[in-house]
Request: fold
Amino acid sequence: MSAETVSPNSFRAFVLSSSLHAAAVVLVLLAGWTATREADTSKVIELVAGEGDNFSAREAPALGVPGGVTVPVPAAPAPRPAPAPEPVVERAAPPEPVTPVPEPVAPPAPKTPVTKNAVKADDAPPNFKKKIDYAIVRGDAKAKQQIRKERDAEAKRVAEEKKRMSKEEFDRAQKGKTSAGKAGASTKVARVDAEGIAKGVVGGSPANKSGGAGGKALKASGDDVLAAYDQFFREELRRKFDPPPGLAETLRATFQVRSNPDGSLTNPRVLKGSGSRQFDDAVLEAIRRMKMPARPDKRAETVEFTFSMREMSEG
Reply:
């Protein structure tokens, strides 16, 4: 279709159709945005550490005593070297007693009857076997004695060597100990400010003398005292809540409770159940066992809040 044949009615119909489509897209986007707004928006408030109910505290109290003095605390001494072992002198084993080897005694020669033709004793042939046996026994005894002397001399030499090495190690240890003592003499003494409160925390500020709010942070991130009180309420609820076994992490319910000026909680009830009677009853029982401090504003209020199993893993 050419440009000359387009009528004004067709152009208006095109504009009207485009406007309707754009309006439909805007409605879809608006519906999605409204659905996302239903999610809970939470404000993270950290409570400072330390005992007490000072919800306006911005820093955790320092550990100490009210009006405490500044006490110099010496730094940890340098580790002393281990004392050198005393030289161990090994005594040489006493030589084994040498048992003298008795010389073999030749048995008396049997008497032979004297005959006329008998040969004289001086003319008898020498007994070489006896002499050889005697020489073997005597040589073996001398060899054993010589080996024993060599062993004793070697043991004495080893003991002297160990003694000399031990003395050298002792001298080195004493020299190192003297050097460490000179180095430690110039170490500066650290000083600690003891100003604080008796139930403060390490790393806290001595400017806070009225205690903390039962949290873990050393500094608070918000200025709203009531918000800190509400955060303490949720922390205490997580501590008192004892979940029954086998519950899913997706369980979530809305509750209502009356918060009185003295901190007591009354009339807890379920506004929107989680679908699990065990979970809802466990939360109500935890609320009954809670002990809150007095409210900072000294007023009563009906509190509505949502609690889920997922908060236990996040806490």
Q: What stands out?
A: Residues 184-193 have pLDDT under 50 and may be disordered. The CA atoms of residues 5 and 227 lie 70 Å apart. The longest strand covers residues 252-259. Strands lie at 71-72, 191-192, 252-259, 265-272, 301-308.
